Amino acid sequence: MVRIFIVLSALAMVLSAVLLGPNRNPGPTAGDFLPVEQAFVLDSEHHGDELRIRIHVAPGHYLYRHSITAAGQEVSLGEWHLPEGEPYQDEYFGQSQVYRERLELQLPLHAAGPGAQVELRYQGCTTGLCYPPQTVLLPIAYSSR
Questions:
Q1: Which GO terms describe its biological process (predicted)?
Q2: Is 88 within the bounds of a domain?
Q3: Fewest 10 Å CB contacts: which of 62, 96, 114, 121?
Q4: What is the DSSP string of 8-61?
């Protein structure tokens, strides 16, 4: 009985090596990817009538320009623009623009009230994974002057 077990174990190891050998890539697993908060590190600064937002993009990752939106809650946003991105041919979205390494936004603020915040939405990807769309609430310091 022990001999049969040893033979079957050896056979299973040989088959595993053949099926999952160096020429076969089972593909990336969830542990191969950065968590979204490490892939896209966001920080912001509120100075007077402006909110500056910086998103640091990890190497090998990118943000889609078309996915970035900002909306004020208890604050009005002035006109703001996204910088041009790098052209990118996307398998799903076609011709797109993306940001790599870093993105900086400057949002003009008007009439901020108590509880004011800016809702920022974005989505990014890396080879083999698109992260779900993200929503971040950025508080705005209220001053009654």
A1: cell redox homeostasis
A2: yes
A3: 114
A4: HHHHHHHHHHHHTSTT------GGGS--HHHHEEEEEEEETTEEEEEEEEPTTE
Exposed, middle or buried, 67 (CB in 10 Å: 0-12/13-18/19+)?
Answer: middle
Any idea what the CATH number is for the domain that residue 114 is in? 2.60.40.1250
Q: Is residue 51 part of a domain?
A: yes
Q: Express each pLDDT in 52-100 by its tens digit.
A: 999 999 999 999 999 999 999 999 999 999 999 999 998 888 899 999 9
pTM: 0.75
Is 110 contained in some domain? yes
- Residues in contact with 82: Cβ distance below 8 Å, sequence separation at least 6, in sequence order: 65, 68, 105
pLDDT at 103 over 50: yes
Structural domains of the chain, count: 1
Give the range of the structural domain holding residue 60, as residue numbers without chain letter: 31-139
Closest CA to 58 of 70, 82, 42: 42
Would 114 be classed as within a structural domain?
A: yes
